[in-house]
Amino acid sequence: MIRKFGLAILLVTGLITQGCGKENHPTKKSPKSKPALYLDWHNKCLDGKTKDIDAQIDNFEAQIKADHDDNLARVYLGSACALRAKESFWGPTKLKYLNRGNELMDAAVKNAPDNPRIRMVRAIGYYKMPKRFGKRPTAVADFEKLLAVAENKPSSLQTNEWQVVLYFASCAFKEESHKDANKAKKLCHQLAPTSKYGKLTAE
Asked: Is 21 exposed, middle or buried (0-12, 13-18, 19+ CB in 10 A)?
């Protein structure tokens, strides 16, 4: 059974504009970036209600139809399909959504192998799948690549996203007796010791 997982929520601040003279204009919010918007859609899948998951699958599919090269939408769609498989009761339906989810996540990473956010979604999704589905080696390989980026290169990921990556990397590595389990754990803690994941990785 595929367990629920969460990713860190990105906050978008509102922009307040003021007019000339005495006229006051209402508060306007800046539009959400794609990563924040897609994360919101994905988080709505985590409650396990099939109607909510189906609605977000529709959102991701519409986004990909509008922009076929949107691999972030593709990897999130794959994850949403995997969650839909979890909530399906009929075996063939489970298998249909699971296979589609795997294909979408793999395609997204293949199309954008150097995008850490896309690889992050697949890594965590595959880590959360039971080992019998055979995706743990791919998750570990993804975490190895992400750990190397975290150590050596700047990226588009925010600190809270890196902590999520490193926390789950440390968990996967520990379960697999991987040599870098402690390294991932320490890096996670060092990024923000007082945060949720910083506390979870404290010695």
From this structure: exposed
Q: Are 2 and 136 in contact (CB under 8 A)?
A: no
Task: Say which DSSP state 131 is in.
Answer: G
- At 79-98, the pLDDT tens digits run 999 999 988 888 898 999 99
CB 64 within 8 A of CB 74: yes
Q: What is the pTM of this model?
A: 0.83
From residue 57, alpha-carbon distances to 91, 99, 117, 134, 196 in Å are: 20, 15, 19, 24, 29
- 153 within 8 A of 116, measured Cβ to Cβ: no
Q: How far is residue 60's CA from residue 78's CA, in Å, rounded to a whole number?
A: 9
Residue 147 backbone dihedrals phi, psi, to 5 degrees: -60, -40
Helices (H) and strands (E) in the chain, counts: 9, 2
d(Cα 162, Cα 89) in Å, to the nearest integer?
Answer: 35
Residue 16 has pLDDT above 70, yes or no: no
Give the domain ranges of the chain.
32-112, 114-128+140-203
